[in-house]
Amino acid sequence: MPTSHKDTNLRTAAVIPAAGRGVRLGPGAPKALRTLGGVPILVHAVRAMARVRAVQVLVVVAPPEGAAEVRALLDAHGLPESTDIRVVPGGDSRQESVRLGLAALPDDVDVVLVHDAARPLVPVETVEGVVEAVRAGAPAVVPGLPLADTVKSVDPASHTVTGTPQRALLRAVQTPQGFDRATLAKAHATVTEDVTDDASMVEQLGVPVLVVPGHEEAFKVTRPLDLVLAEAVLARRRATDGY
Ligand code: CTP
Ligand code: MG
């Protein structure tokens, strides 16, 4: 019988890029180290991934000079012993940080999730949906949501609209994005253009990318108002499910 990643004991890992400064959030500590409900955003994101049974290995990509601090922070927050958590220093771009995280994966990992530390409140079901789709054979999977706003393309020099893509054909994509490890490794080894997510690198290889349902609570903490929203979501969870 041919072996495929569906019927072996290979493991699923999550790379969590957390090396960004968070310029759009305004002055302060690196975004992943800012707190929500008194707990660093990164710790929320690591817990969210560690809560998923299928995910057995985590690689946290820390700010370039902050790996020791991040290691200490994670140890101080008592994360589950059953998850193998590694910390590596990141790079100047998200892409570089993910590449450095991939380099720290153990050999027996065949499915890789890449999850922004800046999406601390992703629900377990969203992560599970991505893992299941990769395990079922999709080489690349992204969680996506329909857009609320109409989107225009513009000429940035003249501030003139150049087009309006049909909204029904657009999706806002989130993380975790899930991949067959070899596919993601090949994408990172061959694509050099600037990209803002991992799936777009895989798209450039001509590999199909499957969209599964995203979740509103998987939003990325990017601007100051997102912190207000995240605090509200967390407060509601703590009130309703003893989170
Ligand atoms: N990231 C990273 N290494 C970088 C840049 C970004 O690991 N050199 C990570 C961020 O820490 C974040 C994720 O990539 O978890 C998504 O990036 P983004 O939301 O853009 O975060 P920042 O780059 O930190 O924010 P900004 O662009 O506002 O500076
Ligand atoms: Mg950024």
UniProtKB/TrEMBL annotation:
Matching PROSITE patterns: ISPD
Q: Give start-end ranges for the coiled-coil region(s).
A: none
| Site note Positions MEP for the nucleophilic attack, residues | R167, K220
Database matches in Pfam families: IspD
Enzyme Commission number: 2.7.7.60
Which source organism?
A: Actinacidiphila polyblastidii
User: What is the name listed in the Swiss-Prot or TrEMBL entry for this protein?
Assistant: 2-C-methyl-D-erythritol 4-phosphate cytidylyltransferase
InterPro entries in the cross-refs: IspD (IPR001228), IspD/TarI (IPR034683), IspD/TarI_cytidylyltransf_bact (IPR050088), ISPD_synthase_CS (IPR018294), Nucleotide-diphossugar_trans (IPR029044)
Mention one GO molecular function.
2-C-methyl-D-erythritol 4-phosphate cytidylyltransferase activity
The protein's matches in Gene3D superfamilies, at most eight in alphabetical order, are given as:
Spore Coat Polysaccharide Biosynthesis Protein SpsA, Chain A
User: Which pathway?
Assistant: Isoprenoid biosynthesis; isopentenyl diphosphate biosynthesis via DXP pathway; isopentenyl diphosphate from 1-deoxy-D-xylulose 5-phosphate: step 2/6
Q: Where is this site: Transition state stabilizer?
A: R24, K31
Reaction(s) the record says it catalyses: 2-C-methyl-D-erythritol 4-phosphate + CTP + H(+) = 4-CDP-2-C-methyl-D-erythritol + diphosphate
Q: Which CDD domains match?
A: CDP-ME_synthetase
Function statement: Catalyzes the formation of 4-diphosphocytidyl-2-C-methyl-D-erythritol from CTP and 2-C-methyl-D-erythritol 4-phosphate (MEP).
